[in-house]
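Task card 7
Instruction: Convert sequence to structure tokens.
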Amino acid sequence: MTKELKQEYTLRITQANKTQLITILYEMILTYLDEAKTALDAEDKAEYKAAIRKIRGCMNELTASLHFEYEIAQNLLQLYLFINKELVHAGMHYDKENLEHVEAVIRPLRNAYKQIESQDVSGPVMGNTQTVYAGLTYGRNTLSENIADPTANRGFCV
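Output:
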């Protein structure tokens, strides 16, 4: 994942509500899947293993965020367990087919949560974060981030 993409995800996470956080995790998984496929094509086993490990980390976060008082959590858990099984096979056998199975499950979930985002009017999960405004600078087609009130307390409240 590029430095710029990490910064973008970080910014989005600090300003996201609960539904948006789930969508971001799905998007991160899709990004890492692309990295794993690229590493597999380049026969870079170390990079491939690293991408699989990062996907599993995202899956662990998704699994930990399930609320089992709702019936749908059981269904999601079964999907997440299937994905973890596919990731184990992909890591052991260096098989792109397993990665495609994972993508076939994650992409529709991401699309569904993206639609749900518009219905979730709750505020950001993190409080006391810096406000970032992005705008065009005087440079040609460049984007800069300006922090409003940089002297404010930067501690995060969850």
